[in-house]
Amino acid sequence: MTMLHEDTGVALWRRVADSLERGIADGHYRQGSKLPSETEIAELHGVNRHTVRRAIATLAERGLVRAERGSGTFVDSKRLTYPLRSRTRFSEIVGASGHEASGQLIATATEAAMSEIAAHLKIKAGTSLVRIDAMRAADGTPLCVSTNFLPAARFSDAGLIYERKRSMTKTLAHYGIRDYRRAWTRLTATIADASDALRLKLPVGSPVLVVDSLDVDTKGRPILTARTRFAAERVQFTVET
Question: Which domains are present in the chain?
Fold first, then answer.
């Protein structure tokens, strides 16, 4: 039976896990540092050690901590350094960090451009777009979920191409675009909704970093605008000019 906190209805192990995760996120527990003992954590939260073990096991499954037999539990939340620059390529960035990049098509559709998206791509509102929703990972761990829009007149079957290539760079290359650059990037933060949390393997309500961007070809013509949600606990951005 799962014990619930009588005031919130939240499972006790989840409350403990969330508390430890916040401590890691805000730097209270630093990378490589040792967490308090199970007994100390149990006393701090007024729970038993079985509850603490379940909370720690959950964090370990997500790669936030590691347990060393006979030594204790240590913070292991290595964040991938992700530069935001004029030439941003997911596969290159992940590969340069010594990890294997992969992509997965979630869904694709053709839809009419809303006014904001149309303005970004310098087309008329209502113009046909290809929408590509994708999840991208490093060594199998989900890093981000993205929603991408491309003009359908130029990239009519881009969704099918992405499904085969699993890479936006390779998808664009299929259409003869061998190089492109980032025209602008906007960075904000929000909370993961249920859909993104599921795909990123995060608890609902976890923080995500949102990157809105526009890419243009070598002639400066807009080709792709995207909104990408990164798991905040797995990346750290650096801005390069």
Answer: 12-75 (1.10.10.10), 80-239 (3.40.1410.10)
